[in-house]
Amino acid sequence: MQNNTQIVFIPAFKKFIAASVTGRRLMPSGKKFRTGTIQQYGCVLALLEEYEQYQNICLRIQLLFKSSLRMLQKENKYWVRFFKTFSLFLYKKKKYFDQYTGSVFKVIKTFFHFLAVEKSWPVGDFYKFFRIPAENIYPVILSPNQLRFLITNKEFEDSLSGSLKKIKDIFVFGSTVALRYQDLMRISPKNIQHTPDAVYLTLHTRKTGAEIRVPLPGYAIEIIRRYKKKPGRFILPQISCTNINLGIKKLIRQAGWDYHMPKIRHRRGEPYEIKNNKGETYRFYDHITAHTMRRTAITTLLLLGVDENSVRRISGHAAGSKEFYKYVVVIQDYLNTKIKEAHKKLIQLNDK
User: Fold this and answer.
1) How many angstroms separate the CA atoms of 126 and 208, rounded?
2) What is the pTM assigned to this prediction?
3) Pairing of strands 6-8, 211-215
4) Among 174, 144, 180, 172, which residue's Cα sits nearest to residue 330?
5) pLDDT confidence of residue 316
């Protein structure tokens, strides 16, 4: 795998993954890495192997023991060339956009950091200059008015088939409690706590282990009562993530929210519109997935004036979470629009 001065890249990367799987390498919190993270590492490994085959090369890492200026300059050129050619491979051959390309380089930088810090190998800091334009993809959510329609419109509910009524109940409940879908599906009677003043949903999330305690409104309690008597360990109907995604899109389309909403992604900072399988512009319902429930719940609470710390306690986001900040940005954009509308009304009042 290595000699006194060089490490072969791919075998070392495989050992990095193995250390992450076995627990010899842990998250900063001291927990083992989640399955999704390990799968992401495996995808990056496959890309690196394909890149080596495509370029007909074998990547290596030079160990810089008391290196001369000439050696440092040589290594700098080597990794600058790697960054340019691997970026080109991801953009041109694999047709990836900035978001995924950036995530690939983030994993590679994590690998180098592992070698430098945890293994104490003198690999240099050239990897710190692997930079991809940031792509901010803000969440698509239902507005409070749209969510209110799903909750209260009896005529719409009566028009739904039996299966879509179940989908609507799951979507409304999920858009209230802000849980990830895997946690939503594991709610059981023991997670429902009745107190003299309220009914609470209490749960430890699977992904982060955060303790969630959410007071439930009347319509959510009614949904629980509707399914609580059904046989099975869990309260809500058990629907796979694939089927819930298909069902939600059908539900939202039937609600009449089928207006055009282009799906835009960036490559090297340049915007590109992604079309659907028919070559058509995406519509609003195309963007709606199981995760929209969580996004809608968080955004609705913020819009209705719940402070950020309280919402984070419900959603399980850590303080300073970049993911949570996206919701705050969306809310600020919404508030800016409302403020501009208020200013316009003020001027109109003065003109009368």
Assistant:
1) 32
2) 0.83
3) unpaired
4) 144
5) 76
